[in-house]
Inverse folding.
């Protein structure tokens, strides 16, 4: 399960101390987790990170940013909650070109995406990467295409899963509108396997309305990418996004 | 769920007509499924296939052989139940070098292994290969390393899963002896996710005693490889294997 | 270097005895090698193979067919020269789901494609697969995208390389028209590295005119796929293709 | 071709201005390039980087360090020449979990390894990653197993290639002793394809004597890993290594 936190001042220390806090159903939207995936976009990661940190502080909404591994250090220094886009399944050792979980944690990451549709992993490697993340004290979100794969991902024990139909990624058409059944199907599939695994909603999310729809379908967070990272004004895009949660 | 069948005459037609038959708990061992994986061994696939067909006929035990894709045609002509070692997730189309499910079925395969530890697949591709196998009317066994991955594999809806700790493959030390908890853990993990998914036991199985141990731990079949394929006398090895089931 | 042969009666035996024969520049087009890649198309491989065998016999042009591995046996029985679409780099051993070079040779394959753009391989695996093909006495064609990669492929010592710009595959626009420089660039790149490596031309080839253009640019053969495999009348498509060579 | 530089004060600026300088044969050993690959070792990257920067300054030998991507920023801040262990073939865009060449350059990397035996790449991706590195103004070293693959790698136009027989990596037995023919074979193979491509020698290098042997066989640099990264005293290990060059 992902950690949540309420409106109010935010710092990396305070988030950590709030692990294990969870919010009652009535205030579910307040706990929506917003993860901005910067992919390999030609954006300024520091600009987006600073905006995300400010919006998180102002709104009380949990907002994190997942930059390139080489930018984790600089992004974390802005004070924003920072995630890796991927970690490798290996432990310390002879693994040239790997993304060591301990290294991204050391640079400031607090969590990691795994198995994004642009970076599909072997089943055994998702399991290995989850173990690596746990060793490095990183939270985890495993992405998957459809409810069956969401069930499979949930069986591996991540903190959360994210359903992202590949055909909707980057389209601007939110999955919550284009295919609400896939979101509720994912929520059901995860719940059947492990009731402690949160479900996030990815693909096409860009507005506050999309966020509310996702919440109404049972998601406890969203993955965004181009809607913020490629926006002319990332801060305004994030403010618009979290506005309905206030 | 894998199909089973009782002692008696066997032909490819009769097996097919027996789909959906299942045996009561009391005779569970009679329904143990024995799949001999020929991998890329330098054995004569026709010799092993003929022996397997004869032992299946004589004992009433379901025995199948999984040869190289290029040998499926010749192996199926011996009358033995024939499986593929892998099928690709793709449909018909522009997929050079793929192993099309429809092609292996056309050549005589009745089922396919997936995600063997020597051929680990992406989670999304296991899902895709299961869909491909279903289109081609192939039974499916998804291999995995440990109970967590077995749960994940079961969530994708195969007929069966097979637990094979990589460190025991090819050792001659049966998983049922070296690590019985991993077998019962796999049986439990699969049952929690989908009670219709059979659990097979692989890695190190070579004797009738190993088969009985696997059955006692809740497995409904076994994967074998070197114990038969590299035996001086594959027929004798198979006879020894199924002897306790009679 | 690929083997060639002239107009006249053809049998698998005669082709083999003609290895090492090569045709003088003046009759270069007679030696154009035509390889029909059936990919995972929903075609009848026996129909295409029979047509290819007949057209090869009638025209004296070397025509081969590359079916799915599971169809090699049945395709080779038509008498057509049969190729694999891929072989794995491994030797005999514990390699479940591999495509063992010895197995495809055993089923009747006389050569193999490697590194097709739909099945890109690691550099080390192309090297390993070439060694595997050599052990199994298979001829080899390594595909690549552009002249630099063609030079790299040639450095590994295959019989031939094939240049196939990915953006033209399946378009019906022949690379010899759309981008003749890439073909002459490939011919130059291969010649600089190893003058014994033939260059074939793939991507968009479908007519006799395309074949002549490819030959004029320095190619000694062509890869085709949909133009024959998806034709309403594969025999007529092949007859049209080789007509200018007679 | 890799840049070299002579004994004397060193700064990241001065190295860059010295691109294109090359040393005459008589002083070849002065230009040996020493790249310390930190892999995923549990070492302190800053400690090794600081030692490497000091040894480079004191000896005038070009010494660089290749840390985890997430540590590039902190390592580069020590003033040592910093390399990536890998970059992905993609450009800016939707590539979650990639290692964008521009991002590692932005963090301070001046070059990148590619195709290390622990991170084998597809031929097409080596080509793509070289293009990505060029866009980001990174120097490149492509690793390979044997002379044939070295020739293939050289055909793709990197600055340098490195021959590392996988069976010697991490053994402490230098390739220059265990198999000197593979080094001279690699030097010949690269020269035949492209005389501008430097050849480095990896696998088992740990002492100054190994460095001299590599130089005598025609290598213009070495890759090291455990010999420095896992040494009790990395600074002493590096001093020992470069001692014969002074």
């Amino acid at each position: 399960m992902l950690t949540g936190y309420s409106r109010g001042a935010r710092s990396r220390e305070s988030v950590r101390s709030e692990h294990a806090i969870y919010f009652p159903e009535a205030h579910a939207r307040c706990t929506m987790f917003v993860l901005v995936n910067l992919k390999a976009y030609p954006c300024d990661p520091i600009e987006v990170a600073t905006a995300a940190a400010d919006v998180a502080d102002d709104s009380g909404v949990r907002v994190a940013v997942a930059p390139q591994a080489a930018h984790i250090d600089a992004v974390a220094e802005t004070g924003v909650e920072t995630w890796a886009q991927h970690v490798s399944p290996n432990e310390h050792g002879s693994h040239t070109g790997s993304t060591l979980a301990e290294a991204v944690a050391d640079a400031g990451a607090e969590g990691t995406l795994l198995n994004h549709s642009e970076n599909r992993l072997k089943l055994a490697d998702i399991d290995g990467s989850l173990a690596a993340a746990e060793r490095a004290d990183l939270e985890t979100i495993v992405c998957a295409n459809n409810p069956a794969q969401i069930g499979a991902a949930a069986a591996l024990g991540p903190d959360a899963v994210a359903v992202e139909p590949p055909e909707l990624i980057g389209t601007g058409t939110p999955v919550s509108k284009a295919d609400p059944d896939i979101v509720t199907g994912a929520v059901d599939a995860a719940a059947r396997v492990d009731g402690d695994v949160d479900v996030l909603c990815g693909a096409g999310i860009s507005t506050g309305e999309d966020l509310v729809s996702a919440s109404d379908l049972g998601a406890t967070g969203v993955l965004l990418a181009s809607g913020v990272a490629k926006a002319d004004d990332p801060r305004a895009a994030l403010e618009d996004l979290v506005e309905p949660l206030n």
The CA atoms of residues 4 and 95 of chain D lie 34 Å apart. The mean pLDDT of chain D is 87.
